[in-house]
């Protein structure tokens, strides 16, 4: 029986356990502090090294100056322009890749003829970096947002597809037996068994796809674009305004972190049966 | 109560591979009457699960045939209670229980009524919104039982539903199963390797031998109902039956070893 300890005089064994419990709470707090402290510490060391010129401040400007530059760029409005256009391309390209990947992945997982037909194509196309296809993509779609989105979609597509197929094929056979025994039609298989059963692995693939989308947008905007975070990083590098270049890099890092948190939150919402 | 509900006629199932074939069950014939609780009892690997999977429509027999007499209404022929992992992890307790009804598009009020009735019967009403990962093994098997009964099939098939439970939980669930079953007296085919379980539950026990699985003997258990585990344990006649069945199975197991 559980008792509330506030209204109750503790026995000796309980107070021993209470001490241990308090200790473990303190330990957890210390670990959380470490997580927060480590990036701050790194920034402080960087600041000191750069200020004292122990590392070349031309290549590694102190973080405080980068932050100042961030507000400076923000105030002129050009930063928002670049960020906005990049986000537009990322989100568009992400969905352009993820949605077909999920549909084709579920079909490949569920229907053997589809799997055996598409498997060799997937295996042959997957190793080709979409960035290497950028010249072709630009020829087909032109130098515009669509060509960036297609490039991102191409990179996002494969990890999501592979994980979705694996998600479906790894569903325990017994759930298929249950569905069959209780009279599930093929539509029910798809929505009640295959889709939710594959969802955990699918979400891992989407998480991976999100990271790849960010890598791809920066590279794609460096090659053929006149706007976006990648373009900002590249032009500032070429004109040797490295403070501004770092602002671009920090933004990418920030968005990667932000999207990860967003997807983790979505994962908890979509997969409430999974123990975290 | 005397018409036959399940007729199994010379059923054989062979599993064929490139270099070998194994007869899982051979030439099995059964006649199970309406409302009978029948146990198939045998050592693991005697093909009892294969027989049940055929009745459940999950496997096709190699030769022979079987019929399950359909009822008057539009009811499903059979529903199966699976071994321990038989609840779907991404559905809540409630949605697991109503699964069969939802799959056959039962009318809304019937669905609600039957789901609630059997949730209550197995004592899971307050856990209805939880997922299987949040409940115990015994509760999961209660979900399986409730799902099968809520589906209201002509016959129930049970594949060692309590094999993975601890002894105390097993006794409790066996008695719960019996008390739910007493209400409807549906025809049940129950698979087990536990002699105690077979004695407690069955009207008739079919003893099976292994490789190929055949039915070697049939036993009528006429202990009055409602039954409980104490009755089986304290009844000297059941003690004799236990020993008799044990000796028979022991022979079957040892034979296989030679």
TrEMBL record, chain A:
Spell out the PROSITE patterns in the cross-references: ABC_TM1
Keyword entries, A-Z: Cell membrane, Membrane, Transmembrane, Transmembrane helix, Transport
Q: Where are the transmembrane segments?
A: 30-49, 87-109, 121-143, 149-171, 211-234, 246-266
Lineage: superkingdom: Bacteria
Tell me yes or no: is Protease among this UniProt entry's keywords. no
Q: Which GO terms describe its biological process?
A: transmembrane transport
Q: Name one GO cellular component term.
A: plasma membrane
Q: How does it sit in the membrane?
A: Multi-pass membrane protein
So what family is this one in?
A: Belongs to the binding-protein-dependent transport system permease family.
Output this protein's name: Nitrate ABC transporter permease
Q: Which organism is it from?
A: Pullulanibacillus pueri
Q: What is the lineage of its organism?
A: Bacteria, Bacillati, Bacillota, Bacilli, Bacillales
Automatic annotation (TrEMBL), chain B:
One short Pfam name that applies is ABC_tran
SUPFAM superfamilies cross-referenced by the UniProt entry: P-loop containing nucleoside triphosphate hydrolases
Q: Which GO terms describe its molecular function?
A: ATP binding; ATP hydrolysis activity
Keyword field: ATP-binding, Nucleotide-binding, Transport
Organism domain of life: Bacteria
Enumerate the spans annotated as ABC transporter domain: 6-235
Q: Hey, what's the signal peptide range on this chain?
A: none
UniProt-listed InterPro entries:
AAA+_ATPase (IPR003593), ABC_transporter-like_ATP-bd (IPR003439), ABC_transporter-like_CS (IPR017871), ABC_transporter_ATP-bind (IPR050166), P-loop_NTPase (IPR027417)
User: What PANTHER family is this protein classified in?
Assistant: ALIPHATIC SULFONATES IMPORT ATP-BINDING PROTEIN SSUB, TAURINE IMPORT ATP-BINDING PROTEIN-RELATED
Q: What is this protein called?
A: Nitrate ABC transporter ATP-binding protein
Q: Which organism is it from?
A: Pullulanibacillus pueri
């Amino acid at each position: 029986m559980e008792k509330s300890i506030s209204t109750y005089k503790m026995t000796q064994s309980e107070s021993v356990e209470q001490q241990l419990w308090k200790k473990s709470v303190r330990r957890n707090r210390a670990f959380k502090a470490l997580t927060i402290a480590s990036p701050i510490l790194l920034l402080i060391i960087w600041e000191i090294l750069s200020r004292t010129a122990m590392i070349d401040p031309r290549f590694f400007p102190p973080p405080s100056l980068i932050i100042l530059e961030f507000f400076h760029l923000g105030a002129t409005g050009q930063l928002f322009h670049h960020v906005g256009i990049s986000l537009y391309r990322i989100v568009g390209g992400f969905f352009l890749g993820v949605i077909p990947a999920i549909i084709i992945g579920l079909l490949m997982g569920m229907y053997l003829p589809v799997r055996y037909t598409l498997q060799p194509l997937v295996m042959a196309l997957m190793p080709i970096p979409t960035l290497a296809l950028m010249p072709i993509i630009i020829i087909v779609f032109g130098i515009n947002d669509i060509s960036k989105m297609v490039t991102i979609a191409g990179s996002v597509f494969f990890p999501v597809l592979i994980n979705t197929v694996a998600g479906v094929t790894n569903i325990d056979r017994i759930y298929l037996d249950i569905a069959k025994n209780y009279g599930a039609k093929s539509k029910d298989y798809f929505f009640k068994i295959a889709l939710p059963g594959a969802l955990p692995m699918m979400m891992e693939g989407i998480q991976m796809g999100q990271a790849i989308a960010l890598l791809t947008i920066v590279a794609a905007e460096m090659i053929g674009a006149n706007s976006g975070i990648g373009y900002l990083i590249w032009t500032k590098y070429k004109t040797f305004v490295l403070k501004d270049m770092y602002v671009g890099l920090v933004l990418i890092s920030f968005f990667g972190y932000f999207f990860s948190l967003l997807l983790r939150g979505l994962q908890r919402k979509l997969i409430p049966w999974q123990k975290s | 109560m005397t018409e036959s509900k399940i007729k199994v006629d010379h059923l054989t199932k062979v599993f064929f591979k490139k270099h070998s074939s194994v007869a899982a069950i051979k030439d099995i014939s059964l006649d199970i009457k309406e409302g009978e609780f029948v146990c198939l009892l045998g050592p693991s690997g005697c093909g009892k699960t294969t027989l049940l999977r055929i009745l459940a429509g999950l496997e096709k027999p190699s030769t022979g045939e079987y019929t399950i007499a359909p009822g008057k209404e539009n009811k499903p022929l059979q529903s199966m209670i699976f071994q321990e992992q038989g609840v779907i992890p991404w559905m809540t307790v409630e949605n697991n229980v109503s699964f069969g009804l939802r799959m056959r598009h039962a009318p809304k009020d019937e669905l609600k009524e039957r789901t609630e009735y059997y949730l209550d019967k197995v004592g899971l009403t307050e856990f209805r919104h939880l997922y299987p990962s949040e409940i115990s093994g015994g509760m999961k098997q209660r979900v399986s039982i409730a799902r099968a009964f809520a589906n209201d099939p002509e016959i129930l098939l049970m594949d060692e539903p309590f094999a993975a439970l601890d002894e105390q939980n097993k006794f409790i669930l066996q008695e719960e199963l019996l008390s739910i079953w007493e209400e409807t007296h549906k025809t049940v085919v129950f698979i087990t390797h536990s002699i105690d379980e077979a004695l407690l539950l069955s009207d008739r026990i079919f003893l099976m031998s292994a490789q190929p699985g055949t039915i070697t003997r049939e036993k009528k258990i006429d202990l009055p109902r409602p039954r409980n585990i104490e009755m089986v344990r304290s009844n000297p006649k059941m003690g004799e039956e236990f020993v008799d069945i044990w000796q028979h199975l022991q022979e079957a197991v040892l034979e296989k070893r030679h």
